[in-house]
Each structure stands twice: as structure tokens, then as C-alpha cells.
Amino acid sequence: MIDSYYFRDIVFALEKALYYERGRGAYFRATLIGKEFIDRKSIEGNTAEEIIESCFNMMREDHMMKNASYKKDENGTLFTFEMRDCMHLPVEAILEEEGVPAYICPPINMILYKIREMIDLAVEIADITVHQDDGRCIVRVVVFKQDSPEYT
Amino acid sequence: MGMGERGFLSREVKMDDLLEIMKTRRSIRRYKQKHVPDELLEKIMEAGRWSPSGDNGQPWRFIVVRDPEAKKALGKIATEGSGRRFTAEYFTGRMQERFEGLKDPEKKAKAFKKLITGEVSSFLANAPVIIVVCAKLDVWDVSYDSAMATQNMQLMAHALGLGSCVVVAPVSDMRDDIKTMKLLKIPHGYKVITPLAIGYPDERPNPRPRLPLEEIIFYEEFGKRRGK
After folding, report:
1. Looking at beta carbons, which residues of chain A come within 8 Å of B143?
2. What domains are defined for chain A?
3. Cα–Cα distance for residue pair B75/B179, rounded to 1 Å
4. CB contact, 8 Å: A32 with chain B?
5. 8 A C-beta contact, residue A124 and residue A116
6. Can you give chain B as a three-state secondary structure string?
7. B144 has a pLDDT exceeding 80
8. What is the model's pTM?
9. Is residue A110 within 8 Å of residue A47, measured between CB atoms?
10. Is A148 close to B91, i.e. CB distance below 8 A?
11. Which positions in chain B touch A139 (Cβ < 8 Å)?
């Protein structure tokens, strides 16, 4: 019988392998991780804030995490998320032991993917900080309107 | 001169010439709007073709892009990708830390703008030609093989008097990679390694600093320097 550590260990090994293959650039190869999952969910909203709340509700209902919150900076561009007791935390714990910095946050990936898809704003994770001692992650992201380049 | 003295070379090639080509190559981001003949591009791709590859897998495939619309589309993907990445760097203050040494506020603001808007990568659209280096995935060492081919191509371009620049912005992030694959109709089983912008240089950049040899060479094991 497969125990509860099975998927944790598999995800850890895959994340470690990708990091050792691409280094810091592994982040860019992982930006769509979670897309398939969130595509099966019904997410609603006409603003970034509404989409975030809709995603939070789905994630809480699915027990992905116990709690999640966020705040915006004065420009309305930098969003700081706090995820508590997320199901990915045990993976991050072993990655940290192996010297691999946190570079994937599937729940945030999902939220950002939906913001991009539903209201066409540019999105990017800036950094991820894991606090294993009190079971939370801080993820900073930017959400903004991106002007299309013009060429002469 | 016997084969033992010059290996497999069919004629004498001066080591200094080769090193000169390597040391004077620059990443060129501004090009003259002058036609690059097919013959020169073929020489560049011939250089790529002679790269080493694991199991002689030769995974590289090259797409020559001259169509202005396709170049604009690649430039747009590159610009948006870089813009996202550098906007994140700016709003967390890391960009300000990185440019701490740049004291002139005007120059600093200009540099920030170029990065945040993604303009740093938009020159791709204005390159006279782009060779998109692609690779077959059904080999053991796809990235290593293809990177070696790309380097051969850059050196050949330089030796021919052309400038080139590797622009990974349209492919490094999966979100952009997907768009680029679609644009260039890349089939399953292949990936884009990098667009390589090519043209006659319209700039003469200074060499970027290099780490000193003594800092990057170890003997027998990592971290062990000569004489220790």
C-alpha cells in the first residue's frame, strides 16, 4: 500500500532533478505547474482580487492549505501572499535539507495563471520564502498591466 | 608538419587566431539594416552542424526567420517575458541593489526602464535574420549538444564579420515557450533551444568582465587550488 509519503517523495525528487538541471532557471520551467488542476475548477472574478478570493476558497475547500491571505503595496503592483499549512510544505522541508531553494509554488502558480487567463494582466512570482517553523510561506508576486511593444 | 603535431587539422591554424575570435566576440544587440546573404548563414549553420553531440545524436535543427511579422512576434514574446521578470525584480528592490554601483540617477532610471519594459530583449524583432536553434528531444544530451552548436555558430558569425546574440527570453519561461513553439509550428518531440539574432553589427560593445583564471580553476577536486 502506498503511504502518505509517496507523493511527497516523488514531487521532491522531481523538483530536485529540475533544479539540478536548470539551476535558478528551473523556476521558469515550472511556471505552469498547477494549470491542469485549476483548469478543472470553477474560478470566478472580474478583478485580480476577486480571482484570488475565488482561488483561495477553492483551495481551502480542497484542503490544499488551512489559510491564505494577501496584501498589496501602495502601487497596487506587488502582492505579498501568506500561505499557511499548505500541503506542499513537507516537500519544501526536504528540499531545504538538500540545499534546493524554494522555486515552485503551485497554489500561487494557479492563481497567477487564472489572473493572466481571465483578465489579461501580466504576472510573475518575485520570490518565495518558506518558514517551516511556523508552517507558512511568503510569496511575493507582481500583477500589472503590460504594454505591448511597438516596433518601427 | 605531421599529423601528430597538428592533430586532425588539414592545414595549420594559429591558436592565437582561434582565441582572438573567441575573445573578441560580443553579444550584439544593434544591427545595420543590411541584408545578410544566405551563403553566410549557411556557413554559420555548417559550423553548428559540426558540433559534438552525445552518441552523435545531432539533435539540432535550424529555422531561418527573415519574415518581419514573425520577427515582430518573437520580439513581442521576448519583450513581454523580460518585462515580467524585471518588473518583479524592480518591485522587490533587488534591481536597485544590483545597480547600487551606478551612481548617475539619469543613467540608472534609463537602465531600469529598459529592463522593466522588456525593451532589453525587444531588439530581437529588429535583427535582419534570426536563426532559431531547435532540437530533437529523443537524444540523451539535448541541451548540452544544442548549446555547443549555438556557440560554434556564434563564433563562425563573428569570424564572418557578423554579430549575433543568444536571446532566450522567448523560450526560457514555459508560458512564452508555448507561444514560440506555436508561432514556429514546432512539432511534438522537438523544442526550441534559443533564437540567435544575426546581422551586421551597428555597435561595438566593450568586453564584459571575466573572472580571473585562478578563481575558476581547481586541481584534482573542487575548491583545491594549485600548491595547496
Report:
1. 21
2. 4-144 (3.30.1380.20)
3. 12
4. yes
5. no
6. CCHHHHCCCCCCCCHHHHHHHHHHCCECCCECCCCCCHHHHHHHHHHHHCCCCHHHCCCEEEEEECCHHHHHHHHHHHHHHHHHHHHHHHHCCHHHHHCCCCCCHHHHHHHHHHHHCCHHHHHHHHCCEEEEEEEECCCCCHHHHHHHHHHHHHHHHHHCCCEEEECCCCCCCHHHHHHHHHHCCCCCCEEEEEEEEEECECCCCCCCCCCCHHHHCCCCCCCCCCCC
7. yes
8. 0.92
9. no
10. no
11. none
Q: Do A125 and B88 touch (CB under 8 A)?
A: yes
Read off the pLDDT of residues B190-199 as tens digits, 9 standing for 90 and up. Answer: 999 999 999 9
* Residue B101 C-alpha, separation from nearest chain A C-alpha, in angstroms: 22
Spatial CB neighbours of A125, under 8 Å, sequence gap ≥ 6: A27, A31, A105, A108, A109, A112, A139, A140, A141, B88
Contact between B62 and B44 (Cβ < 8 Å): no
C-alpha cell recorded at residue B46: 555548417
State the pLDDT confidence band at A114, using cuts at 50, 70 and 90.
Answer: very high
> A2 to chain B nearest CA, in Å?
31
> In chain A, which residues have their Cβ closer than 8 Å to the Cβ of B173?
28-29, 31
Measured between CB atoms, which of A127, A141, A148 is closest to B76? Answer: A148
CB atoms B84 and A142 under 8 Å: yes
Closest chain A CA to residue B92: A126
B97-110 pLDDT tens trace: 999 999 999 999 99
Give the Cα separation of A105 and A49 in Å (integer). Answer: 19
Q: Is residue A8 classed as helix, strand or coil in its secondary structure?
A: helix
Flag if A149 and B76 touch (Cβ within 8 Å): yes
Q: Give per-residue pLDDT as tens, B148-184.
A: 999 999 999 999 999 999 999 999 999 999 999 999 9
Query: What is the rounded CA–CA span in Å between residue A111 and residue A57?
Result: 11
Please give the pLDDT value at position A3: 74
